[in-house]
Amino acid sequence: MRSVKNLLIIFLGAILLSCSSTRSISILYSDSYDETKDQTSVMILPFGTVKVQGQWKKVKENHVSGQYFFDGPDSVGIAIALQPWDRYEFSHNNPEVTPQNFVRKFYEWDANYLKEKTGGQLRIVKEDEQKGYLIWSLSNGPIPQDYFLFGLKGNIAYNLEII
Question: What angle do CA 109, 131, 42 make, to 5 degrees?
Answer without folding.
Answer: 75
